[in-house]
Amino acid sequence: DDIVKSARERYTAKASSGLMLLLRDLMADGQVFIAANVHPYWDPRFADVKLWHVREFVLQVEDFAREQAGLWQGDGIAPPVIMVGGFNSLPWSAVYSYLAEQRVDPAHPEVQLDPTGFLSTMELESALRFTSVYSLVPEHAQSEAPPHALRRPEEYEPLVAAVSEGEAHFTTLTPTFAGVLDYLWYCPAADG
Fold first, then answer.
1. Rounded distance, CA 78 to CA 99, Å?
2. Which of the listed residues 34, 94, 108, 111 has the most CB atoms within 10 Å of its CB?
3. Whether the Cβ atoms of residue 64 and residue 36 lie closer than 8 Å to each other
């Protein structure tokens, strides 16, 4: 199919990296957990590519968690997941929605960027229930947004209301940019 071929060429031509490990806490109770780190393609003009890369990585983490369910603790429970990374995606992005809400609306502006139309044919849902670790930090402990914080394009304004109030004000700070591009996500143990 031409759509699949075009999508494959677009999505695999851009580099991303990801790594996941199964670790055991030897200092405490010996519980195992999955540590995952991902860095999708950086260019904001390819937000659809970032979404596809993150989706594919999360699907791999889901499969790995299912494989590990019960192997180490004998209870059939998949280990918790800690996922970190330079996601190169702002809090109103499709990548953020995918992780924070377990799904992306097909009408999201970044899904619409896909010139192949392939993303709109895919199931953009995740079985993993991630929580941003930043949302667990008390509001008074967070820094104020710097005066040159990124201004959002108008078409994203409706999406901003859905962003967790507990998210960091910025993780990247340069003379011309201040915004959240890096995230720490946690998913508790679940039935395998």
1. 18
2. 94
3. no
